[in-house]
Amino acid sequence: MIHFLRKMLVISSLCLVLPFIVQAQIKKAEYYFDNDPGFGNGTAISFSKSAKDTTFSFTAGINTLSNGIHRLFVRSYDSVNKSWSHSIPKMFYKSSILSSPLVNITQAEYFFDTDPGVGNGSIINFATPRQDTTFSFIASISSLSNGIHQFYVRTKDVNGRWSLTDRQMFYKEAV
């Protein structure tokens, strides 16, 4: 038997919070999306005291970006060498679905190895429709052969929309 804990992570499309580690005597840092506005023309990142090894986090507002694939670039200015670092890119996807309010989950299903089609997996029972996206269930693996398998889970909301299918690989061995 597999005991599976399912958690769905909802990422706000209003901001990205990313940690960056830089090494130098950092005087300032900036970020920009997609197209380079030129050194010193990005959005300034506030952080505390300059240091040789600086780790900082910041929030980059993405509410003005269109839905789709974007790149966030971050760079810093070294006050000792009086030069800008290379821009570090991080690719992400902005979706309006992520900024939608949470809706109740009405159905969940799982399957092993081969997708039987949406709505045709083994039903995961839970009491009532819920926004709480953490639930536990037991999935029997007794009919599976020994070896590597893939375990899949997906959910459906009150609007009839199915989630993406999450996959977890596991190994079943003879007991």
Description:
By secondary structure, the protein is mainly β. The protein has one helix at residues 96-99, and strands at 2-7, 15-23, 26-33, 43-45, 53-61, 68-78, 83-84, 88-94, 105-112, 122-123, 134-139, 147-157, 166-172. Strands 3, 4, 6, 7 and 8 form a 5-stranded antiparallel β-sheet that branches. Strands 10-9-12-13 form a 4-stranded antiparallel β-sheet, with no helix packed on it. The protein has a two-stranded antiparallel ribbon with strand order 1-11. Strand 12 and strand 13 (166-172) form a beta hairpin.
Largest sheet: 5 strands, antiparallel
Number of helices: 1
Order of helices and strands: EEEEEEEEHEEEEE
First and last CA, distance: 12 Å
Query: How many individual β-strands?
Result: 13
The percentage helix is under 10%
Overall pLDDT, averaged? Answer: 79
**Morphology:** elongated
Strand percentage lies at: over 45%
Overall SS class: mainly beta
Quaternary structure of the protein: single chain
- Please mark out the parts with pLDDT under 50 across 5 or more consecutive residues, or reply none: 1-18
Q: How large, in whole angstroms, is the Cα Rg?
A: 23 Å
